[in-house]
């Protein structure tokens, strides 16, 4: 169908011969894009008597909203928590690479670090739209340092903090240097003084997530009532489910969630961080809250070997990443990477089997989740797009193919293997 | 009248779609002469629209030089309401074919001045040179478009209050809630449709059988407005077996006996190839 409308001169693209994810199913419908947003073709037809300038044949493929990763620590040799001369460049490098995994928006994540790192890195990582240059930065996810000692996981013990007596977000402002460009904070609600922190962060529009914590269910519910809405990598770094005190896991079926609100929970569906049976239990208990995250670390995208995460050394074996054994080691930077060599670090470490982030990519997680849970393709796709958008309160704009939403898209086959990625209707990666 | 009797709904849909396709092709429309088509909404023509879309996709027919005039539209229902006739036509037909928006005419049930809107619609039909083929359905009360029992057989496009029968029949599209169904509509008149060169009425289902009987075996009567077409020179009634249940055996046998002749009307036209 021919040319354009009286409302705008911008060209209109019509994705044809595709199945789009809409209203929780795959529908055989065309998708219309103008000005980087999804267009209502019926309005275009009747109001503007307009039509498409060009048609893109999708060859029968699935067209879904681009993935949103709210927990990404780095990748391809870049560790967001390790200061370099140009943290912004590191984020941009990874942002470009993850387009290959269908991620169109993400939250660069900083693990527990000393204030100097936050003060250096945060001002350089700005919220920005995605495009050909890379996935959009929605804001930083600060995972720590206000977390539990017992559940620090791979976070460095020496930099953990408590809130102190003053109440409010002042301790956070001190440690982080500010909350600009911050979209999420993970904290342990059992730490004294957390209530006012959770409340104030929520009021400021920062998503509060519970994680790396030994909170019991009451403490967790209290935090949710104050505004917490996410659980950082469910099951990992928290007390295990117990039938007389389900702990944070109990939030999935808690009846003390305020009306109109929902608790979301991150799942690292790499087949390693969570046993598939546990994944299924969580999914069946609260399917609408499941948010797929990669929690990917610097080594994602790199070959097996030793690498640095924050202030620690980790070791890659296949799809597993562990806190490294006690050998003095230096990790040569692979030749194909050309970023600041000060990211190279040499440390003593203690051998453990503490999991240390994952190296699975988001599209791998989506496929694995669908396989392990037996859920439908639409459900698996929504866990990586709609749910994170709802969590961050941006579902009117991202994570969905409703009219008016940003045209951030992924094209894939029936096995959910990616063929192309689009941001604002422009192709930014093709297989 | 030609009474085309086919076994079931699907055959009716196919026959009717082929007839429309052939009429368009025979007319050979172009930028200087458009084929004007009157169109209905509702459950009955859905299958016919699906078939026409298929023919378009196969390259058998194009709607580039076709102008359409819908029969009716609810008053006061937002245009983008899923049950508006604008939505129906977009979702079931227009979005799949190559028709241009400026060639589509549907009454605007939200116009500030409804009588003017109706007059303007009549004028649009006139300006387009009249309607070549008007496709319609029949209500269980024998109405054509929203020309409810008692409507003048020479009526023109106007505002109508819907009969309780019609509201009940339409309730199924509004979650079964009678209070949600619009009570008024803009509709072409019986007279408007009578002015078309040719009229094709689709009738399927046993619940329409009595209306069909009243329309073709009894007299012309404003209580069964479809009966007006007994006085139109070129009318086709296309129906399934169930719709004939109230007709005389004699009527049914007579027209079934003509099927071998009537079926020629839907044969593929000689020389019709894939378009473009």
From TrEMBL, chain A:
Give the EC number(s) under which this enzyme is classified.
3.5.1.25
**Which amino acids does the record list as binding substrate?**
154, 236-237, 244, 273, 355-357
Show the catalytic activity. Answer: N-acetyl-D-glucosamine 6-phosphate + H2O = D-glucosamine 6-phosphate + acetate
Q: Which residues participate directly in catalysis?
A: 295
According to the UniProt entry, its GO molecular function terms are: metal ion binding; N-acetylglucosamine-6-phosphate deacetylase activity
Tell me which Gene Ontology terms the entry assigns under biological process. N-acetylglucosamine catabolic process; N-acetylneuraminate catabolic process; negative regulation of UDP-N-acetylglucosamine biosynthetic process
Specify which residues bind Zn(2+) according to the UniProt entry for this protein: 143, 212, 233
* Pathway assigned to this chain's UniProt record: Amino-sugar metabolism; N-acetylneuraminate degradation
Cofactor binding note: Binds 1 divalent metal cation per subunit.
Q: Which InterPro entries match?
A: Amidohydro-rel, GlcNAc_6-P_deAcase, Metal-dep_hydrolase_composite, Metal_Hydrolase
Q: Which Pfam families match?
A: Amidohydro_1 (PF01979)
Give the keywords, sorted: Carbohydrate metabolism, Hydrolase, Metal-binding
Q: Where is the Amidohydrolase-related domain?
A: 62-426
Q: Which cofactor does it need?
A: a divalent metal cation
User: Which family is annotated?
Assistant: Belongs to the metallo-dependent hydrolases superfamily. NagA family.
Protein name (database record)? N-acetylglucosamine-6-phosphate deacetylase
The major lineage groups are: Eukaryota, Metazoa, Chordata, Craniata, Vertebrata
TrEMBL record, chain B:
Q: Please list the GO biological process terms of this entry.
A: carbohydrate metabolic process; glucosamine catabolic process; N-acetylglucosamine catabolic process; N-acetylneuraminate catabolic process
Listed Gene3D superfamilies: 3.40.50.1360
Protein localization? Cytoplasm
- Which PROSITE patterns would you find in this protein's record? GLC_GALNAC_ISOMERASE
> What UniProt keywords are attached to this protein's entry?
Carbohydrate metabolism, Cytoplasm, Hydrolase, Phosphoprotein
Under the heading NCBIfam families, the entry gives:
nagB
What name is this protein filed under?
Glucosamine-6-phosphate isomerase
Enumerate the GO terms in the molecular function aspect: glucosamine-6-phosphate deaminase activity; identical protein binding
Coiled coil regions in record = none
């Amino acid at each position: 169908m021919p040319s354009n409308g009286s409302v705008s001169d911008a060209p209109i693209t019509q994705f044809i011969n595709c199945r789009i994810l809409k209203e929780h199913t795959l529908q055989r419908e065309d998708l219309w894009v103008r000005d980087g947003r999804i267009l209502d073709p019926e309005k275009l037809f009747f109001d503007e008597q307009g039509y498409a300038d060009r048609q893109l044949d999708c060859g029968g493929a699935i067209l879904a909203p681009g993935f949103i990763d709210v927990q990404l620590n780095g990748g391809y040799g870049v560790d967001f928590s390790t200061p370099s001369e140009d943290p912004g460049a590191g984020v941009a490098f990874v942002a470009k690479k993850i387009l290959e995994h269908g991620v169109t928006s993400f939250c660069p994540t900083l693990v527990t670090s000393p204030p100097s790192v936050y003060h250096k890195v945060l001002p350089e990582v700005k919220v920005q739209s995605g495009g050909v240059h890379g996935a959009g930065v929605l804001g930083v996810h600060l995972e720590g340092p206000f977390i539990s000692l017992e559940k620090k996981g791979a976070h460095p013990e020496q930099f953990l903090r408590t809130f102190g007596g003053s109440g409010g977000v002042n301790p956070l402002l001190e440690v982080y240097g500010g909350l600009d460009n911050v979209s999420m904070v993970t904290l342990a609600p059992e730490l004294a003084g957390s209530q006012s922190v959770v409340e104030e962060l929520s009021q400021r529009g920062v998503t509060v997530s519970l994680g790396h914590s030994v909170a019991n269910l009451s403490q967790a519910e209290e935090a949710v009532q104050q505004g917490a809405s996410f659980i950082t990598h469910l099951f990992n770094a928290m007390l295990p489910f117990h039938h007389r005190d389900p702990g944070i896991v109990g939030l999935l079926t808690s009846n003390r969630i305020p009306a109109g609100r929902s608790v979301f929970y991150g799942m690292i569906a790499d087949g390693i961080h969570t046993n598939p049976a546990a994944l299924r239990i969580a999914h069946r208990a609260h399917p609408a809250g499941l948010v797929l995250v990669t929690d990917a670390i610097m080594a994602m995208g790199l070959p097996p070997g030793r690498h640095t995460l924050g202030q620690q050394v980790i070791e890659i074996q296949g799809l597993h990443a562990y806190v490294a054994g006690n050998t003095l080691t230096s990790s040569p930077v692979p030749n194909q990477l050309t970023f600041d060599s000060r990211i190279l670090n040499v440390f003593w470490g203690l051998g453990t089997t503490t999991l240390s982030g994952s190296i699975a990519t988001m599209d791998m997680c989506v496929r694995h989740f669908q396989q392990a849970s037996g859920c439908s393709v639409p459900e698996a796709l929504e866990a990586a797009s709609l749910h994170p958008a709802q969590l961050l309160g941006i579902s009117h704009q991202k994570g969905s193919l409703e009219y008016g939403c940003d045209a951030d898209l992924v094209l894939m086959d029936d096995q959910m293997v990616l063929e192309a990625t689009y941001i604002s209707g422009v192709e930014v990666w093709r297989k | 009248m030609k009474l085309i009797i086919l076994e079931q709904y699907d055959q009716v849909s196919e026959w009717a779609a082929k007839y429309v396709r052939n009429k368009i092709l025979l007319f050979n429309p172009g930028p200087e002469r458009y084929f004007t088509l009157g169109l209905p909404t509702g459950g009955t023509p859905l299958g016919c629209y699906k078939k026409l879309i298929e023919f378009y996709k196969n390259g058998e027919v194009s709607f580039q030089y076709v102008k359409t005039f819908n029969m009716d539209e609810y008053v006061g229902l937002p245009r983008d309401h899923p049950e508006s006739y604008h939505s129906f036509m977009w979702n079931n037909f227009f979005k799949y074919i190559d028709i241009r928006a400026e060639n589509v005419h549907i009454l605007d049930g939200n116009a500030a001045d409804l009588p003017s809107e109706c007059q303007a619609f009549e004028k649009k039909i006139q300006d387009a040179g009249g309607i070549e083929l008007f496709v319609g359905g029949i209500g269980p009360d024998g109405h054509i478009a929203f020309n409810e029992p008692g409507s003048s057989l020479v009526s023109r496009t106007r505002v109508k209050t819907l009969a309780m029968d019609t509201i009940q029949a339409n309730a199924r599209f509004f979650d079964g809630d009678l209070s949600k169904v619009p009570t008024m509509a803009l509709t072409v008149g019986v007279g408007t449709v009578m002015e078309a060169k040719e009229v094709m009425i689709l009738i399927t289902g046993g619940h329409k059988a009595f209306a069909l009987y009243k329309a073709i075996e009894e007299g012309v009567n404003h209580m069964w407005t479809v009966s007006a077409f007994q006085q139109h020179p070129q009318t086709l009634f296309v129906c399934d077996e169930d719709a004939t249940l109230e007709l005389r055996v004699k009527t049914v046998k007579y027209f079934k006996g003509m099927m071998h002749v009537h079926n020629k009307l839907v044969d593929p036209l000689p020389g019709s190839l894939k378009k473009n």
